[in-house]
Amino acid sequence: MSVDKFKFVSPGVFVNEIDKSQKPDIAGAMGPLIIGRARRGPAMRPVRVSSMSEFVEIFGNPVPGGVGGDLWRNGNLAGPTYGAYAAQAWLQNNSPVTYIRLLGDQHAQATTDGEAGWNFDKSPKTDVSLNGGAYGLFVLESGSWHLGDRSTATLAGMNAVTGTLGAIFYVKDGAVRLSGSLVATDAATTASIDAFVESDASGHFKVEVLGTTGAVTEAATISFSRNNENFIRRALNTNPTRCNSTVSSADGLKTYWVGETFEKSVEDLVSTTKKIGFITCLQEEDSAVVGSDFTFGSQRAQTGWYFAQNLGAAAQYDARNMQKLFYLEALESGEWEQSNLKVSIGRVKAPNNPSANPYGSFDVVIRNIRDTDATPMAVERFSNCNLNPYSPNYLAKKIGDKHITWSDTERRYREYGNHPNISKYIRVRMSGDVDRGLTDPELLPFGVYGPTRFQSFGIVSGSEGFNVTDIENVNSGGAGDTQTTTELANRFVKANAGPSSPGHIGAYDYILAPSLTHEQDWGIPTSNTQLTATIHFPALTLRASSDDSALGDPSDAYFGVDTRERNGSNIFDRGVVDLVRAHPGNVGKSGAVSLSTDPVTKYSYIFTLDDLVGASGSLENAVYTSGSCQAGTSWTAISGTYRQILDEGFDSYTTVLAGGFDGLDVLEKEPFGNHVLDENQGELTNSAYYSVKKAINAAADPEVVEYNLITMPGIRLPALTDHLMNTAAARADALAIIDLESDGGYIPDTESNAAASARGGSVTTTVTKLRNRAINTSYACTFFPWVQIRDTIEGGLIWVPPSVVALGAMSFSENRSELWFAPAGFTRGGLSRGAAGIPVVAVNQHLTSKERDKLYDVNINPIASFPAEGIVIFGQKTLQVTASALDRINVRRMLIYVKKTVSRMAATILFDQNVDATWARFIGRVNPFLASVKSRLGLSDFKVILDRTTTTPDLIDRNIMYAKVFLKPTKAIEFIALDFTVTDQGASFAD
User: Fold this and answer.
1) Can you state the angle between helices 687-698 and 718-731, rounded to 10 degrees?
2) Of 308, 322, 323, 265, nearest to 454 (Cα)?
3) 848 and 878 share one domain
4) Higher model confidence: residue 518 or residue 928?
5) Residue 8 scores a pLDDT above 80
6) DSSP states of 318-336 as a string?
7) Quick one: which of 399, 387, 388 has its CA closest to 444?
8) What is the pLDDT of residues 89-120, one digit of tens each?
9) What is the reported pLDDT for 124?
10) DSSP state at residue 113
11) CB of 347 within 8 A of CB of 478?
12) How far apart are CA 58 and CA 354, in angstroms?
């Protein structure tokens, strides 16, 4: 402190303390960036976690793979999540990790081959073929179908028989059909696609799977009763990966799997024990959408619009005309949120003092989808929310409304929205009118639109053959479709359709339209007998009443969606998972579907508290009756105010998230395996390739995400590992750990059905292929071979790529010493001794000394196994061919660390005066830091020059400060030479 800055007033001794012992600022911990799959969580963007418990909370436990069974409903657990194991290996000894979870995306200009998702055949079927597709099993009530003459356009009596879609079969090759008694007077026993077949007396059907020649390859008796031993999901294959001949063994190969099943819909809508069924192709003729077309990228699940209460006359009420307020959207793309979470609006309260505060309030509760209203399990709760944009409790402020979009042109994310995301799972999307404060302050979220489902349809048979008609349910006052028979025929039915040329019709209206001469072929009797039926597509169940023995108080009921198997049950209806899936062709995804104009889909429900009715006139229990407000029978209609229903405590309801999609190929155990990625394809023609490259690009900018290591375990395609290395080199602040391509190294069983002996890899091939790539960079390294680890949670053994344990060894080495110590050898690279962070029990290949020499000669770091010492990383080279200090991992990592830290120090003097005092301040910070690195054995010496010789007057005039930093890295011992000399007894060691 200058003496001029002391304040002298009266005589005395003035003392100032100057601390020059302060340690310089050191760059904060960065850790690695890992790209890979995970059970759940944020996708396609970097997320930083500080511990394994936090990783599990966000992304779930690592998946060991090898799981079969019902993969359609349970998710893909067939392939190990190598990236998650790499995160575990690092976090065992260090922190943090930045993780990018992979999902399937597609380029904005993707070709047909480059589309994400999966599909068998996108061409509509024009006849009964055996080339696969999606087949629907429809189930109808059994009973008298003789319903008299069909002569009027109104088609009276259409609801005489009720049916529903019961299951969907996805057939890669061939077809499926029902076998049994046709519905006819002579009831001949036969089997047919597109024919009405009777079940047995217990409601069981016989399903036959046909090969491409038409021969029956599999037959099973099925039931829609969950507890029956012949339950459809137990009797038939539900694992899509068994249809993939690349990864499934020949003896277990299937040509189909059962996808969605709607056992609850069958239970609720088909009242007779004996049933009628038919199977037909699923496709929508007008827009050429077929049921097996899931070729679109990953997308977020969302609720429908929440809308306001009725403030007008009940007689004119229509829920569709109520003010839309907001909807909720999953923070991330994918299917996990819709399969595991539901959303409740609770404690809806009218404003207490409208003159002082005209806004009411409500809670938003994110719940476990498997809970019940009697024992709700809140995952997140946002209490006392309101719709006042200027309030701290404004819904968008409480939950957050930020969202990001990816630009393929700019190769980066752009962020939109006003309020940071507080929720870990959802964001809110407000109506523009609400967000601008233009709506009535009294409005509250009183109802919600459900997810879309396909339009119902009717069947009429008789003297004119089959016809179909659209039967639109009345939802909260909406009107049904009144099209004439002629219009319907023109809209849905293909001309001259018959068994040999079926007309697969309208918007998942899949009934065929045979001519009169073919009626008996379809199993329909010709003698004055008609089938008149209404077929509904499955929908979520809504709570009908608060009179529920499971509830302590009727007002504890959450109306809206009920995810239980039945009223009074505590068992979760697993079929809900199928009801919230994205539709084929991605039709009906929008939350703004118009009931009056959309020919394909409609809302599965439009729920509102305005439609609650008192049970038998009582206010103690409530019953939900759709349309009761408009009919004048609901509580709000009778009382003339929405407040009474809230005062009685019936102020809560539930809905679901729906429409999310992973964008992955369900036939693949490993959707990003080398057999899926293609060296000859690129971003536009291969979705998996594009998704991985997009993940790398998302982490390319050092000003967006920091890390000092980067790896994508198990992804070995040279074009992508080259891109990873180039990204690390361009940033110049990270070391890439890559795995080598399959035909040189080990091929996991998730990518090939070959015997283990044929998937082991070859040292010679590995060496040759790497040498041919002519890589020369110090910003990358690689290891060989694959190793076997033990899963610490489930206890199984898994083969993982060497990058997983190499990353773990670097974490261990950094924790036990410093990052510039070599992560190799028995002390810091002893994998059997815990250096990997996860238990390593075996290597895929036991390398000989000569094989280790071959690998090390081309800069591949061997993972060796010794009888006494165990498994150890026996090398620490980078992939730099040019001989220099930077051809070693420990030196490269030291230099990355030093450059990053010194760069941060330099950033603190940006825009300061370019004078000696500033230079001295910079040197005064850098020298102690480098001295610290030297004292910790990272450097043998260093020197910093910053004076007039480096920063010349010309540079000063150009606003440049130029410093030179000279470093002498400390080298690791990799070769030890020892002479052992044998001497005579008389020799003296002192000589």
Assistant:
1) 10
2) 265
3) yes
4) 928
5) no
6) -GGGSPEEEEEEEEEESSH
7) 387
8) 999 999 999 999 999 999 989 888 889 999 87
9) 58
10) G
11) no
12) 42
pLDDT band of 960, cuts 50, 70, 90: very high
Domain edge (last residue) among 605, 632, 656? 656
Strand order in the sheet with 787-790: 797-800, 787-790, 840-843
Exposure b/e, 609-635, CB count within 10 A at least 16 = b: bbbbbbeeeebebbbbebbbbbbeebb
Asked if residue 429 lies in contact with residue 401, where contact means CB atoms within 8 angstroms, the answer is yes
What tokens does 549 get?
Answer: 């023995």
The span from the CA of 587 to the CA of 454, in Å, is 9
Q: What is the mean pLDDT of residues 177-184?
A: 76
- 716/860 same-domain check: yes
Please state, in angstroms and rounded to a whole number, the distance separating the CA atoms of residues 487 and 476: 26
Residues 139 and 237 in one domain: yes
Three-state DSSP state, 253 = coil
Residues 628 and 649 in one domain: yes
Domain count, the chain: 4
Same domain? 222 vs 142: yes
Residue 338's SS3 state is helix
Q: Which of 510, 536, 562 is the last residue of a domain?
A: 536
Nearest to 86 by CA among 57, 54, 58, 52: 52
User: What does the pLDDT read at residue 597?
Assistant: 54
In the chain the first and final C-alpha atoms are separated, in Å, by: 62
Measured in whole angstroms, the distance separating CA 609 from the mean position of its chain's CA atoms is 33
* Cβ count within 10 A of residue 9: 5
pLDDT tens-place string over residues 583-637:
988 877 655 444 445 567 788 999 999 999 987 656 688 999 999 999 999 999 9
Q: Is 893 helix (H, G, I), strand (E, B) or coil?
A: helix
How many CA atoms lie within 13 Å of 636's alpha carbon, on the beta-carbon side? 27
Measure the CA–CA gap between 610 and 606, rounded to whole angstroms: 11
Looking at residues 515-544, what average pLDDT do you find?
Answer: 59
Cα separation of 459 and 533, whole Å? 5
Residue 287 confidence (pLDDT) above 70: no
Is residue 970 domain-shared with residue 944, that is, in the same domain?
yes
Q: Are 224 and 90 in a shared domain?
A: no
Which of 66-80, 741-755, 935-949 is predicted with the least confidence, judged by mean pLDDT? 741-755
Considering Cα of 244, then 250, then 252, then 255, what sign does the dihedral take? positive
Rg, C-alpha atoms of the chain = 34
- Enumerate residues 6+ apart whose C-beta is below 8 A from 118: 294, 295, 664, 665, 666, 667
pLDDT of 881-937, one tens digit each?
Answer: 998 889 999 999 999 999 999 999 998 999 999 999 999 999 999 999 999 999 999
pLDDT at 327: 96
What's the pTM value of the predicted model, to 2 decimals?
0.86
Residue 469 structural domain: 133-293+456-536
554 domain residue, yes or no: yes
Q: Which residues of 960-989 are buried (b: 16+ CB within 10 A; e: fewer)?
A: ebebeeebebbebeeeeeeeeeeeeeeeee
| In-domain check, residue 397 | no
Mean pLDDT of 141-168: 59
Beta-bridge partners for 339: none
The DSSP annotation for 541-610 comes to PBP-BS--TT-SSGGG--EEB--BSSTT---B-TTHHHHTSPPGGGTT-STT--TTT-SSEEES-EEEGG
How many Å apart are CA 837 and CA 839, to the nearest integer?
7
Shared domain check, 736 and 885: yes
Element holding 709 (H helix, E strand): strand 709-711
Rounded to whole angstroms, the Cα distance separating 186 from 527 reads 12
Report if residue 49 sits inside a domain: yes
Does residue 5 lie within any of the structural domains? Answer: no
